[in-house]
Design brief:
The structure is a homodimer of 335-residue chains. Chain A is of the alpha/beta class and 335 residues long. Helices cover 24% and strands 25% of the residues of chain A. In chain A, α2 packs across α3 and α2 crosses α8. The longest helix of chain A has 14 residues.
Chain lengths: 335, 335
């Protein structure tokens, strides 16, 4: 147990990136520890989640959520311990999931917090496999792709927080699952630990040929996280009446939009391509989280975390994640 | 009534186009009038339908249907009169809808023909508003876009065989309907005769601004026939949770595939984009045709035809249609 700092520490946005994000876009500042109002609690954060969607929040471009303003604390999901409560729902010592952002202490409304059970899984899992990324994987795969046993499911960023869950869920459903990941080490993990049938390294010079070799009959379900050349290529491998859950275009965040020349495949192959944002259906989260928890308990769902130590490391870890340097769910350990 | 020619005349494919189709890709030849076998009938064709999908059939590129081989008679839907029958289902004099191709006489299996009722509508309508184009319009609008009253529906190639039906159906459903067409005359027809709320001329130098002005709140349902710059532009005007029925990419037939830089809108706006081919669900055609027939009868659905006179004019009319020179459903009158 570390001693409690007297002040809060926060990371604020100081400039918007043009192209790649750099740690210079952020600044660590000292601030007072806030006081909870009625029906609020004060939380000492233990874990901060870093996720690709945060890149959208620091951009000027229109997206599905409001931008973080210059000078504001960066948004983000957090897990922490209640240290002061003005709500009947929470007691000091409760471990809670919330969205208090990139800071050591946060105040939150009681109705925006979830008390979490860490008997069987570590608290950090509620930011990954049991949190937004895991629920994203479930929603896109089950509700949009809806694969049948025996169908071929492809997911890129396969070793990441979302992709790793997509592939394992698809294997549990009896699908043939091919992952795409960057580098041999990640590909080995995807096959040997996560149990995918195959994994194709997108950094290989023979990527396009490798992809065709591993997907000889084409793709029934594509869970798309990456966009760019990879997605453009995958579009040409879709089967008639196939489905694409468009979850992210992380490769497009730091450059001009990619120009897709393979859109005709959507017509020729009668593809259903659907974009989705997991926060549109918050009412489904508790049920999905329960299902994912059960799968972990029965050994059918495993996960891996990349952990940066200390709030000051968050910007660097965030940039690294956007470049694919993380391996599994990217977290920052705060205390 | 013309006198009957002694020989059949056919138009065959003699070369595949590179870029734009030209009349030189086809050749008119004389041939024997074929003899019907058991359960077949001989038809003297009255009308030949010209449709954009035919461009795909003369290309080497993979599409949803097999290519026409060099030397083969061009495929196409036809309406004609039975002049010899070896089937119990048809008698001499029956008017039938079939797909005997670009020729004056054709033999067809009885089970691939539909006897048509021309009491209320002309026979040619079974190639347009009551045929594949009309059923395409219904399928994409009702089954894929599924608009609610008050929603904004946009369709391009709005004065064409498909687009004109899409817009009228959407108006009947109580939608706000904006068409896109090439030229002022077509736009006037779309608004004044077809009853769309507005029409934007894509040939205008102020096209992008005009589009925004007529669709201030964005698009709920897009019925996409054209592709290219128009579709790329429309993607940026889609509303959250909007739907796109991808019916055709006619602007891409005669050039390199367009490179779409606005795919991110599908993610940000959670768009459902679905390609479809109307012949995938032949079992739905009779019911849809009945609905369309009822709408014509009650004055809620009107149509217009461009008619080329004589089989020898088919290649020129086909090229003209791909360039948007037709006005309404393009037909060839054969006898």
């Amino acid at each position: 147990m570390q001693s409690q700092p007297i002040n809060n520490q926060q990371i604020i946005l100081v400039s918007r990136p043009t192209g790649w994000v750099t740690p210079d876009n952020f600044k660590l500042i000292e601030a007072d520890i806030p006081n909870p109002g009625p029906d609020q609690v004060l939380i000492r954060n233990q874990w901060l989640s870093l996720d690709p969607y945060m890149r959208g929040r620091i951009s000027e471009a229109k997206s599905y959520a409001q931008s973080v303003n210059i000078g504001e604390v960066m948004v983000g999901a957090t897990v922490g311990v209640v240290i002061e409560s003005r709500s009947e729902k929470f007691r000091v010592g409760d471990v809670v999931l919330g969205a208090t952002g990139w800071q050591l202490y946060g105040v939150a409304n009681a109705n925006q917090l979830l008390s979490i059970d860490t008997t069987l899984v570590p608290a950090s899992a509620y930011l990954g496999v049991l949190g937004m990324p895991g629920i994203t994987a479930w929603t896109g795969l089950i509700n949009i792709c809806a694969p049948s046993p025996g169908e071929t499911v492809v997911v890129d960023a396969a070793s990441g927080a979302v992709g790793s869950v997509v592939g394992q869920l698809a294997k549990n459903l009896g699908c043939h699952v091919v992952g795409i990941a960057g580098g041999e080490e990640k590909c080995r993990y995807v096959v040997d630990v996560l149990g995918f049938d195959a994994c194709v390294d997108h950094r290989s010079s023979t990527f396009a040929a490798d992809l065709k070799a591993h997907i000889p009959e084409g793709i029934d379900c594509l869970f798309e996280n990456v966009g760019g050349e990879i997605f453009e290529n995958l579009l040409t491998l879709m089967k008639p009446f196939s489905r694409i859950a468009l979850c992210g275009l992380v490769s497009e965040f730091n450059r001009e939009p990619h120009a897709y020349r393979t859109i005709r495949s959507i017509l020729v192959n009668r593809i259903k391509l659907q974009g989705f944002i997991v926060s549109d259906k918050l009412e489904t989260w508790p049920g999905i989280r329960k299902n994912l928890h059960d799968l972990i308990e029965s050994g059918k769902l495993t996960f891996r975390e990349s952990i940066a130590q200390g709030l000051e490391k968050a910007p660097e870890a965030f940039v690294g994640m956007l470049k694919g340097k993380n391996f599994g769910k990217q977290l920052v350990k705060l205390s």
